């Protein structure tokens, strides 16, 4: 890893970071996502990699306190409090106010609000949902019949980096494909040397596919301890992780009582972790809405047309045999009953075989230079809306006329995501290495979609088991069966 780490440092001098676990011990006792930790490390480290621990502890105590009562106490004493924090915005229609909650500071929605002038100033950012940002708060004491309340007085979105995709793609040219796979793994904070082979590596980075492609819907079933929750809960502020519990139409799509869209409106990716413990409040309603959304990115609730580009990821545990294979070849029996309908599952684009991944052990923790997580998450976010990759895929992918349209769309979407991840520097047919493209993008996409088809066939004979002929133009037929 040292040689690759040094190459990363040289290729990305402004956005590389040294993953020294001694440095990260400064965050012990604080539950912060990786993109925040990396931002703070870079803010308080010198060119020799020496961290000013006292300065970072001081910053944490002042701007990211871990004592709920501390923030309220400072506000009550009329101090203007500045925080780097996650917060939740919710519009209160009855009261005509935009409410603010800061869970990590013990501030509830009923205790804080955002004034209209600040909403107008940041109308594209201060919308309902969870946010990360640098904010300033003040306390307004009770006056007459008005109760005391906390007011948001200043807001700056947490975006430390202005992403230049051309810079990123130019840097990519300095690495071979095998090296670049390791760069991606290290950016996810994992040691590439902890993986046994390229198959494991490619299976692991497939978890990034929904981060870079709009409305790419995937399923991963894996044994416990393969790092599912960590990847989806720490890499990006643009993702929302649901870990079990009740899930409602109002929370995800549209709240009729509040007349507000749900969390999927404002995020790149929603992940359902521990899918076996997910419970729909109204199963029949949720199944109908999910079918519509997974198919076309839209759903209708009463007279409201919900539209979103949010990708969806289902993650669950799967029992394995002693030789590390699923105990049942009907994989979807591991899903809760609400998700076991073939018509619903067929709308997912691909499947990740999580049993091929290694368990997370001490040797999997990265030590060395890699891309800053906050920068990497912004790159993933920016790649979602880069149209040139889908143009390229449409130009080079051939399929027989009788191909199932849902299969073709699924394969193209997965291939586009792989192209963004592995070959972001290639946007024209002339520059495309068809052999590499076939090996790293098309074949894996066909296999992932093929598993969905095979499993749907095991549930319902009406679904065909085999994939159609999908190949690279003028490259030759791929054996899909």
From TrEMBL:
<dbReference type="InterPro" id="IPR014061">
    <property type="entry name" value="BrxL-like"/>
</dbReference>
<dbReference type="Pfam" id="PF20442">
    <property type="entry name" value="BrxL_N"/>
</dbReference>
<dbReference type="Pfam" id="PF13337">
    <property type="entry name" value="BrxL_ATPase"/>
</dbReference>
<dbReference type="InterPro" id="IPR046838">
    <property type="entry name" value="BrxL_N"/>
</dbReference>
<feature type="domain" description="BREX system Lon protease-like BrxL N-terminal">
    <location>
        <begin position="11"/>
        <end position="139"/>
    </location>
</feature>
<protein>
    <submittedName>
        <fullName>BREX system Lon protease-like protein BrxL</fullName>
    </submittedName>
</protein>
């Amino acid at each position: 890893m040292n040689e690759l780490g040094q190459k990363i440092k040289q290729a990305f001098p402004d956005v590389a970071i040294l993953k020294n676990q001694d440095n990260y011990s400064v965050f012990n006792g604080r539950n912060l996502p990786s993109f925040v930790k990396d931002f703070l490390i870079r803010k308080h480290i010198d060119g020799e990699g020496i961290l000013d621990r006292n300065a970072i502890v001081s910053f944490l105590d002042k701007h990211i306190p871990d004592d709920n009562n501390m923030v309220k106490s400072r506000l009550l004493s009329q101090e203007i409090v500045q925080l780097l924090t996650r917060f939740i915005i919710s519009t209160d229609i009855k009261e005509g106010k935009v409410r603010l909650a800061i869970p990590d500071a013990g501030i509830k929605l009923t205790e804080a609000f955002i004034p209209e002038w600040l909403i107008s100033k940041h109308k594209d950012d201060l919308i309902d949902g969870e946010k990360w940002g640098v904010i300033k708060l003040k306390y307004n004491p009770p006056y007459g019949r008005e109760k005391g309340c906390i007011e948001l007085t200043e807001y700056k979105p947490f975006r430390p980096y202005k992403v230049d995709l051309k810079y990123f793609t130019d840097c990519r040219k300095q690495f071979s494909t095998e090296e670049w796979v390791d760069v991606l793994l290290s950016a996810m904070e994992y040691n590439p040397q902890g993986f046994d082979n390229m198959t494991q590596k490619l299976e692991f980075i497939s978890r990034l596919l929904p981060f870079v492609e709009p409305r790419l819907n995937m399923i991963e079933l894996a044994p416990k301890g393969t790092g599912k929750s960590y990847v989806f809960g720490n890499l990006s502020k643009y993702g929302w992780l649901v870990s079990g519990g009740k899930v409602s139409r109002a929370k995800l799509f549209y709240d009729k009582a509040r007349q507000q869209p749900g969390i999927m409106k404002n995020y790149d990716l929603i992940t359902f972790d521990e899918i076996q413990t997910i419970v729909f409040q109204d199963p029949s309603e949720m199944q109908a809405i999910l079918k519509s959304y997974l198919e076309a990115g839209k759903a209708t609730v009463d007279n409201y047309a919900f539209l979103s580009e949010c990708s969806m990821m289902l993650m669950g545990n799967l029992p394995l045999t002693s030789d590390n294979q699923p105990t049942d070849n009907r994989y979807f029996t591991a899903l809760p009953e609400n998700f076991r309908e073939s018509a619903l599952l067929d709308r997912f684009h691909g499947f990740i075989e999580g049993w091929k991944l290694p368990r997370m052990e001490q040797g999997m923790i990265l030590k060395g230079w890699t891309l800053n997580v906050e920068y990497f998450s912004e790159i993933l976010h920016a790649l979602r809306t880069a149209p040139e990759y889908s143009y390229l895929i449409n130009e080079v992918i051939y399929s027989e006329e009788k191909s199932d349209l849902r299969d073709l769309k699924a394969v193209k979407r997965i291939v586009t995501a792989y192209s963004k991840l592995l070959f972001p520097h290639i946007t024209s047919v002339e520059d495309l290495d068809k052999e590499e493209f076939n090996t790293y993008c098309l074949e894996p996409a066909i296999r992932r979609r093929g598993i969905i088809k095979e499993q749907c066939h095991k549930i319902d004979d009406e679904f065909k088991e085999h994939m159609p002929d999908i190949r690279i133009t003028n490259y030759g037929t791929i054996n899909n069966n």
